[in-house]
Amino acid sequence: MAQTLKQAILDDPEDFELPSSETNLREAFVNMAQHMAALEEQLKEAEEANQPVEKSEELEALVAKIQKAAISGIRKQMSWRLTAKEGRAKWSYDGVCSDSSAFGLLMGLDNPPTWKMKKYTKDEFVTFLGDHHRRSARYDTLSIVDKSNVNIRWNEATGEFKFSGSYGTAW
């Protein structure tokens, strides 16, 4: 019944014949409504299947990759300077993180960050990146200093971030 009505409507949309009784007409409308509901459900399932859902292992792998690159980039900038002895030598690291959830995970947050700039203490920053930021130079060890904060800038639109702070001899 519903198939024949559908074909009649598609063949001649201007002048198709409606079912003769009210019961048949109601049945045709119910069948069409059920069919539309089934199609909407299929569409919803297809859209959910196409969403790029990253698994926690993938996020953790991305976070580990960013941590390793950031630590390496920061350590490469730590060289002996006169200001390093006083703990005033500057470092900065620019990076890109394509997934805001991964950056939030890197910063110890449950969700993507809502801020554009934030200051962390050295201890908080070391908690996120790990304690691998020390470097030997001229019979001493250089590291991020306690007395200065680490500035973190985050641009969610582009995924760019910047870490900056000071380093000096370990006291």
TrEMBL record:
Keywords, comma-separated and alphabetical: Coiled coil
Output the superkingdom of the source species.
Answer: Eukaryota
- As recorded in UniProt, coiled-coil segments are 29-56
The protein in question is named Uncharacterized protein
Q: Could you tell me which species this protein originates from? A: Sphaerobolus stellatus (strain SS14)
